[in-house]
Amino acid sequence: MWAPRAKSVRVRLTSGGEHELTRGDHGVFEAFAEEVTVGADYGFVIDDSDTMLPDPVSRFQPQGVHGPSRVVDPNTFPWTDREWRGVAMRDLVIYELHTGTFTGEGTFASVIPYLRELRRELGVTAIEIMPVAQFPGTRNWGYDGVDLYAVQNNYGGPDGLKQLVDAAHAEDLAVILDVVYNHVGPEGNYLPSYGPYFTEKYKTPWGPALNYDDAESDQVRRYVVDNALYWITEYHIDGLRLDAVHGIFDFSAKHLLQEIVEAVHEQAKRLDRHALVIAESDLNDPKLIRPIEAYGYGLDGQWSDDFHHAVHALLTGEKLGYYADFGAVEHLAASLREPFVYDGTFSPHRRRKHGGRSEGLPREKFVVATQNHDQVGNRASGDRLSTIVTAEQLRLGTALLLLSPYVPLIFMGEEYGETNPFLYFVSHGDPALVDAVRSGRKREFESFGWGESVPDPQAEETFRRSILDRGRAARPEHAAVFALYRDLLALRDEEPMLRPDGADVTVDERDGCITLLRTPRRGTQDAGALLAIFNCTDGARDVSLPDAKHGSWTLRLTTDAAGYGGVERGVWSVEGEPWSGDGAWRAEPGDEPLRLMVSEPAPKRAVSMPPWTAALYIRRSSQL
Hints:
The structure is a single chain. This protein has 14 helices and 29 strands. The protein is an alpha/beta fold. Helices cover 23% and strands 21% of the residues. An eight-stranded parallel β-barrel has the order 7-8-11-14-15-16-19-20, surrounded by four helices. The protein has a five-stranded antiparallel β-sheet with strand order 21-22-23-29-25, with helices on one face. The chain starts with 8 loop residues before the first strand and ends in a 5-residue tail after the last strand. Mean pLDDT is 91; it is low at 570-603.
């Protein structure tokens, strides 16, 4: 036990008895309690206090954040994933879920029956689980976790998480875990009783900053780096999503992020597996993902919010808060061309220059979304995109996400157009803290004009309203949404050029329409081309197709198809040749997808694009 300022430390067993720990180097106390067995509950008592505190590296808190810790044997779980090696960044399609609201039961076990559908029917390749470190009460997003090593008790504890990971691997699904190293929640945070885990040098929006570069910070850094290794090793986690790394303050010569990356990659190599480290960042800073040898931190990926903001502001017309920086079609085109729209340019919202340039960085290192827990849940009413835009706009947003040149992330329920909100909820035990959370949420939304319409975060009803309503998925209008996600992901799997960095990408914008052309990389054998067209306006547009002298253009998919809930508004045409099918296709064993083959093309041809629609064309090489 690291307690550098303590004079004495004892370990107390709830079954009776205490053991005095001996102080060693650097304020580390230790002892061997021979009679303790698996399942024993214990805590630490410091100096003259009689209060028993949870273990900072407790694996399990069966009675919650204020209760004793429980001894867990990490080596008894019967893993069946010996052949599993993980998933590379370029092959990721991420599905973000919150364990407590993904099902009515709100447990790890209740997620398992849906894994096959997510992988086999929808087509995602990884689930990303919102934080599971023990938090106060039973209702929380997970970012108020205080016991970083303990798996949330009401979700299923350590074995429950291991069962979920093992089952996911059996379905060929990777598991990414959201971890929080920028702050620790306010209730049940006993770390200050042990040592200088926090510093007054820096402030975060969520509470005291962790001490990563001040006096006595070495053990704090180790506490976090070891935690990253813990999930990769004991739980077979395939990747870590680091929450809001712009709230991690460290001016050491080797940044904490680099230290985490090096440790995780080295451990993965020993385990003969892939292990990814992906950061959420508000900085638009390419340094996070630049290689270490190029003086970066070497992360495998980072979230890029500019894409989300560009899509959301354009489709909704919202201009409050950070959406003030977006809203024009050229912003959206810029986010498809380069992940950072603000790359050192002036941000009206921030009233300063923001970001750095991303040219030359692999596109597989950028994760984008049109919805996620933050962008939905941090709206006062938790309203999803499906409730604030038209069906046509929703389909366009889907195509923009899944045809973008980046790694896509889907938020649970998005794939069938869930309309239940995802609200912010807590179940704190401290009334003063509850009042502070309520008032803080109202202040947070004042810039968006939502301050007076914030649901009570503490109310159980707020949590209940956020649970997915899977019954909707069977309704025709929701099944049509699912069909579009399914078919776009099937296309992504079938066409290598739709993967990040699978092709050279050229983006153009004219008259409210964006064209995204993928062509084989230089020096590779010609394998045709892919052309995505996005009409981002409320009017029909005629768009010229590029010269297809090396082959014929084939219409593979249109979001306006009847199979996706589209309406018949005339016919699609290429070079005067009409096509009036539904545009939907699904790859079934032995089936050929629906195609439109056109005759030898003229140098320029036009396609008529209905409002708020996307279309994907393919050109096979004439040599194939």
